[in-house]
Amino acid sequence: METDFPLRKIIHVDMDAFYASVEELDNPDLKGKAVAVGGSEIRGVVSAANYEARKFGVYSAMSGVLAKKKCPHLVFVRPRFDRYKEISKKIRAIFFEYTDLVEPLSLDEAYLDVTTNKKGNPSATLIAQEIRQRIFDEVGLAASAGISINKFIAKVASDFNKPNGQKTVNPEEVLSFLEDLEIRKFYGVGKVTAEKMYRLGIFTGKDLKAKSLEYLEDIFGKSGAYYYHVVRGVHNSAVKSHRTPKSVGAERTFSENLSSEIFMLERLEHIAEELERRLKKSKLAGKTITLKIKYSDFTLNTRSKTLPYFVADKALIFETAKGLLYQEKLQNSVRLLGISLANLNTEKKKTPTKEESVSVQLKFDF
């Protein structure tokens, strides 16, 4: 590998079963039990599950009904997002003691660029160990971490020794690590894409690396270039301390399925009002409005419309969403409605850059 840009020392910190772990922290009676955070087994969807529940095949986004079938002794706990945000702030405060280059991905994970850090510690591995220990000592929760030369590899590595572990992929190990990696473990390769790759005989990074750029772009479109480069260790995305949102949305899951469009319009108006509040708080506006409909059988349908001007007003958002609702006949009763706004006024046109080739200096202390 040859590189024209400076090597970075990136840590990806990922809290272990964060929501469920916070519930166990606040309620020790839950320890040792299979716990799911979310709605009940009657109506809800699992937002998060602890490791005891995962042993039975319970995962996030699974319906409460299915989760209960897989794990009859599963304990459901209502989510407390204010509490999760409170804990997340404490964890981030620890991150900022080491570097100002912190990029949160969600409440429970973040990238840290510690190439140059406030502690003057040249070892990203030791910094990750110290951060994880401090989170445990000061907050009472376990975290895992991945450490490497870029965000992609750090993110993949953080999953290797979960829970409560970490993995470092040193510069000289990058190529072999990626070649041996199962394709389904590549960040950005979902279940559908993995199945498609399997059909093409791509099972590992080595198989992916054998494919040309032209071949991958022909099969996967724009994503083809991403796959081509990351398997070669090329992922030059910097850690951004202030991430620009690509969309803003609001949604509601209903206690009872809705079959009347009149009732849906009433709910959509409340959702549009919430979306307006979020947009004003963030000083954002957008052109593309998307209506999200989840039916009672969990089938998902989205309908979008792009306006010639930026909007952030509840009335305009609601009228557009209303038109999208009537655009097609509903297939079933509805359990969830959502509205999101994309094509925001924060987005800038990117100037194309020349293709970067990377090289790694083997003498780089991790």
Could you describe the 3D structure shown?
With 366 residues, the protein is an alpha+beta fold. Helices cover 35% and strands 23% of the residues. It contains 13 helices and 14 strands. It has helices at residues 18-26, 51-54, 64-70, 81-95, 124-138, 151-157, 174-180, 191-199, 205-209, 213-220, 222-230, 261-282, 314-325; strands at 2-3, 10-15, 35-38, 46-49, 75-77, 102-106, 109-113, 143-148, 166-168, 247-258, 286-295, 300-311, 334-344, 358-359. It has a five-stranded mixed beta sheet with strand order 6-7-2-8-9. A four-stranded antiparallel beta sheet has the order 10-13-11-12, with helices on one face. A three-stranded mixed beta sheet has the order 4-3-5. Helix 10 (213-220) packs across helix 11 and helix 12 (261-282) runs antiparallel to helix 13. The radius of gyration is 22 Å and the shape is globular. Mean pLDDT is 90; it is low at 349-363.
- The dominant shape is globular
Q: How many H/I helices?
A: 13
Strand content: 15-25%
**Helical percentage:** 25-40%
Largest sheet: 5 strands, mixed
Class by alpha and beta content: alpha+beta
Q: Which segments are poorly predicted (pLDDT under 50) over 5 or more consecutive residues?
A: 349-363
The end-to-end span amounts to 17 Å
Task: Please give the radius of gyration in angstroms.
Answer: 22 Å
The topology string of helices and strands comes to EEHEEHHEHEEHEHEHHHHHEHEEHEE
The beta-strand count equals 14
In order across it, which strands form the biggest sheet? 6-7-2-8-9
